[in-house]
Amino acid sequence: MMKIIIKKPIISEKATAASEKLNRFTFVVDKKANKIEIKNAVEKLYSVHIKDVRTMTYGGGKSSVKYTNRGIVEQPNNPWKKAIVTVADGETIDLFTNF
After folding, report:
1. Do the Cβ atoms of 38 and 53 come closer than 8 Å?
2. Domains of the chain, start order
């Protein structure tokens, strides 16, 4: 069974500016994927050469507090992982037509 590594691109003002100026593209990836798997998945999916991969993990801590009839209940955040991929010079990824 093949696991899905690249879940979706992140399209925000900061990510779009980085893609235009620095040739860096941001994706939500599988929490268990490492940098080599992310690099291979992006190269295969978009047919580009990758220079650098940076990853960050978010969430998992206690976030929201609910006041219920059983007392105060804390809910954990949903953990997720973000990857910032730097593409080789002269190449680009068109996120608006591929997904």
Report:
1. yes
2. 6-88 (3.30.70.330)
Q: Which of 36, 21, 48 is nearest to 83 (CA)?
A: 36
Please give the model's pTM, rounded to 2 decimal places. 0.81
Could you tell me the CA-to-CA distances from 74 to 5, 19, 69 in Å, in that order? 30, 37, 14
Q: Does the pLDDT at position 1 exceed 80? A: no
The rounded distance, in Å, linking the Cα atoms of 6 and 70 is: 40
Q: What is the 3-state secondary structure (H, E, C) of 10-71?
A: CCCHHHHHHHHHCCEEEEEECCCCCHHHHHHHHHHHHCCCEEEEEEEEECCCEEEEEEECCE
Encoded amino acid at 70, one letter = R
| pLDDT score for 89 | 92
Residue 56's contacts (CB-CB under 8 Å, 6 or more residues apart) are 81, 82, 83, 84
